[in-house]
What does this fold into?
Amino acid sequence: MMRALDRKLLRDLWRIKGQAGAIAAVVAVGVLLQVMMSGMVASLDETRQTYYDRSRLAQIFAPVTRAPEHVLHRLSAIEGVGAVEGRITGGALLDMEGQDLPVRAQAVSLPQIGAPKLNDVHLSAGRLLAPGRTDEVLLLKSFADAHEIPLGAQLSATMNGARRTFTVVGIAQSPEFLVAVAPGELVPDVTRFAVLWMNEDAMAAAFDMKGAFNEALLSLERGAELEPVLAAADRELAQFGGLGAYGLKDHMSNRFISDEIDGLRSTSAAVPPIFMGVAAFLLYIVVTRLVQAEREQIGLIKAFGYTDLEVSVHYFKLVVLIALLGALMGCVLGIWAGRSMVGVYQANFHFPFLVFRVDPAAFVSGVTVSVLSASAGGIFVLRRVFTLTPAVAMRPPAPADFSRSGALNVRLKRWLDQPSRMVLRRVIRSPGRIAGSVIGISVGMALSAAMITLLSGFDESLDLTFGVIDRSDMQVSFYQPMSGKTVFELQQLPGVIEVEPTRAVSAVLRNGLYTYRGGITGLAEGARLNRAVDKDVQAIDLPEQGVVLAKSLADLLQIKSGEMLTVEVLEGRRPVLTLPVASIAETLMGAPAFMRIETLNRALREPDRVSGAYLRVDANALPQIFDKVKGMPMVAGVSRQTDAREAMQKMMDEGAGAMRFVMVGIAAIITFGIVYNAARISYGEQSRDLASLRVIGFSNSETAFVLLGELALVVLMAIPLGIGLGYALGFLVAAGFSTELYQIPAGFRPVAHGQAAAAVVVASLVSGWLVKRDIQKVDLVETLKTRE
Amino acid sequence: MAKDGNGAAEFTFRTKGLTKVYGSGPAAVHALRGVDLDIPKGDMVVLLGPSGSGKSTLLNIVGGLDRATEGEAWFQDQNLTEMSDRELTLYRRDHVGFVFQFYNLMPSLTARENVELVTEIADDPMDPDEALRLVGLGERMDHFPAQMSGGEQQRVAIARAIAKNPTVLFCDEPTGALDSTTGRAVLRVLRDVNDKLGATVMIVTHAAATAGMAHRVINFADGAIRSVTTNDTRLDPDEIKW
It folds into this structure.
């Protein structure tokens, strides 16, 4: 048998179902976000780890120019090393039918017999390479999918200057190519980078590596430390032209994935609490008013002999029920949303399988925060209500005292009609209540503004990178550093307007304890096509001496302009340079370091070398230029700026970037929830007055003015505050979404704030309309009979 | 006061078979069961009867606050039962003054402003100050409802109701929440309004003693009129036993 109070509880809940629904929805989105994001982080983390383990992904990669196979034994003798595998890798250019631009590829050897000890491949279609066959390849699945290359297709590739044809016998995936980035490029692009796996013999023949390898893969024994092993491997490989061993964390593909997961992790740590905070605040306000409106009933229940505790528990149940409903809804939706978002990531990262895991902590924290904030609001008000004796509560209530707000009487009398005065007096009389609504709405608006700022930040990032910093049309890279004359060869091509040399060397940059494995980019003096710009977007003149660091890199290395940076070059003679940091450049992508090309070459003691060039060309001549460039033996790759930009855009739209759209949607829901509740509560408080106005002959619209005038005032006050808050929040959110690969700039974007304000106005109009409908429906007779 | 009953214009209200049913099926409540009634212009009418007898329902329908289920109600030559919501609003605004048991004042407006609320939208209103003086509140015009006694609040409500120079004044239990002294004062004001402004006044009450001051007393029971009596001599509010 249900107790009478509990039946009242359920009926009360049904009576306020609209408002309860709005509160539950706000709680739900907060919890949804929490559950979804933490679920995604946990799932991606777990999937990655499982994939790495199953494929026996190496923990150390040690590229070398050419080392005889017996060196592998010495490597496996290093303390802490588990398995060792030697392999041959090399660059290739694929000639794709119907494509003017050759596609860059990396060829990787597989052992003649059996699976490799490390870096196994995951065959998704076809078969493995037949032993002894030199004309068979396995092709990277993402590339095969992007170009719809079927099993059995013929691929024409140029390797080490020789043109050969291969048959695709299998489609494969590998954890080391989860994200396919051509060497030296910033942006992954599945259509423009391929991986071919070939038999060891075929690779040895193609790259002249018989009995030798040019990359050693090492795994670590449990508990072994990375750094000493890296140093030992470098020592063993030094005499064979070792290019510097590096750990998995510096591996390109893993770096992308980690960046993405870390970005997601920091976003999931920063953003859901903001949303939960807003939800909690809203819940508090609504519950406060809800309990206040029940004042008379509380008196009545107490008059029957119920204790304060019993009454508290009764209202506490109501509040907790709403919060719990919302939290449960959020959990269910969060799991669903997390699953679909993880699906998006899977498509992006090409995991062959996916482990979906939900983080139970997210449920617990989501539900706890909602319930706590809801109860806090309830308890605060109940305490005040309990000071009333039952008799006071049951007497006809005295009209609310407005005498203190009478001051405006004299000054405004001439200007205001009575309805406007009612609006103003209510605002003046309870500034706390109005402030609550103003803050609530402005926080909702700030969320939207910050999220929209983020959207335009992504675009700004692209514009700065591809419109201001890199203004070339295409970029050419060479297999190895070439003589400066090569630039003239390119300049001679018909249709080429401008050529700028560049020299990229990979290096470990070090400042005390902080290190970054990246590189130095040498640029021509007074470069115009690819340049470093300062924070005012003015070109930086590269100094005669010293290096210009990207801001992200300077932050990473904790280094300031004027300090000395250690650069361990990983190519050629492998010099260790100590260079002054001349200035800091504004970049939004990658973490580059710039030097004058002559200065760099001098430091390397390799005068007049270029590793690539930036070209500005006549758009009409593009196909001919591609054709010519493709035929040049030293060209390792050609990329078009528009392709890079598109790839970047795609990555931002599909990866973590996709999250921003979800967030904008959620911010909109929260904003609406707050505005609607503000309107609803205000209506609840004034419904009797409004009905009286209707009775004495005010039309629906005139009556609605009294109600909506307040909402309009609140919204007008909330908008400037929302702009300020949104501006601040924008930085927080942008930092959360920035990764090592790209930084999202924050700042004041009038459009973002305009759109957020427009969203608030629309939400107000809709809420106003919904509440006005209630005024029309109100039973005048009934309202007049009730006391309040 | 209309002594003959021939011209329709001489009547403020006229109803024919007025029926009001709340709910449907076995749960239906018949609040009015076919009421036929003529209220002459300028009359002071008291509607008596126990709770649920239908008197308030009748008041609400002819006051334009509620709709009849069946039958017709005429205000002068306008058929109230055929009016749209908008027309009913205009009817209330232009012709009707209301006084309720719980005053229904705007707590955020002073006494004067509560009256101005109505004079601002009325066609031919009186001066708000004059309305307040009529109810004896000339001194307390700038007080808020919270600063007034129940009787004072009710007099503000009456001032608000009469300030538009209404054709008809409806009062639902106007003294229900008041003690005898303030109650009498309120009744005197109502009588003055009827005498001086010539407005038709309809008072719903279950205080039978109030009936003495009316021209016409209508007794309700079970949704129907049981009897209509006219008083040849009307009592002064001070003579009414509380």
Remarks:
- The mean pLDDT of chain B is 86.
- Chain B has one domain: 40-70+82-236.
- Residues 40-70+82-236 of chain B form a domain with the Rossmann fold fold (CATH 3.40.50.300).
